[in-house]
Design goal:
heterodimer; A: mainly beta; seven-stranded mixed β-sheet; 11 strands; 0% helix; B: six-stranded mixed β-sheet; five-stranded antiparallel β-sheet
Chain lengths: 113, 111
């Protein structure tokens, strides 16, 4: 069974631009969660989608948004990029949304200059 | 507030035993997870504790005390490949809860 895939793996953007990241979950998994990982803050929860609905949201500004498609693939978007948005963005998928069987993707490394 | 504390770095010798501690204060609790993350890679699941006590899985064991808000991950017979960051995470609860992570403990295993 293929694992969680994320594209692109690396991205360099300029302050003020916007970016869209993609996550394809494990086949059959309906929940996708997104996390931001930085050296200073560690892993922080962004939001979770289940069956195309956002079920849970972390404490991030509205510049961070996401969506999920009918095939469970998910995208997250960050608008008006700031230098502090430079991070590793990880997505994780699971069957039902609880973290008991949550599998992480390799992440997208975003650098904002 | 929500707070999960674990040491930033630890060093141990190959073949030895190391214990990585985690203390937490969260608004809800429905389980504690440990993940391993090698540099540049995704976190991988190690263990899950929801009841007090010790869970053993091969060379790795995890302990939980809910009354003390405390957990530890015990790694035995350390190998060089165990050099990684170890993340403690609390699941706040409910089917729609989310994981709250500590900042991770970077473990270096020396020969």
């Amino acid at each position: 069974k293929a694992g969680v895939t994320q594209t692109p793996r690396y991205l360099i953007k300029t302050r003020g631009q916007q970016v869209t990241l993609s996550c394809s979950p494990i086949s059959g998994h309906r929940s996708v969660s997104w996390y931001q990982q930085t050296p200073g803050q560690g892993l922080q929860f962004l939001f979770e989608y289940f069956s195309e609905t956002q079920r849970n949201k972390g404490n991030f500004p509205g510049r961070f948004s996401g969506r999920q498609f009918s095939n469970s693939r998910s995208e997250m978007n960050v608008s008006t990029l700031e230098l502090g948005d430079s991070a590793l963005y990880l997505c994780a998928s699971s069957l039902s949304g609880t973290p008991y069987e949550q599998y992480f993707g390799p992440g997208t490394r975003l650098t904002v200059t | 507030g929500q707070n999960i504390d674990q040491p930033t770095e630890m060093t141990a010798t190959e073949g030895a035993i190391v214990q990585i501690n985690c203390t937490y204060q969260t608004s809800g609790f429905n389980g504690l997870f440990w993940y391993q993350q090698h540099a540049g890679e995704a976190p991988t699941f190690l263990s899950y504790n929801v009841l007090d006590g010790l869970e053993e899985k091969g060379r790795f064991s995890s302990f939980l005390s809910r009354s003390k808000g405390y957990s530890y991950l015990l790694l035995k017979e350390l190998q060089m490949k165990d050099s990684a960051s170890y993340l403690c995470a609390v699941f706040e609860g409910g089917s729609q809860g989310n994981l709250i992570f500590g900042k991770g403990t970077k473990l270096s295993v020396k020969p």
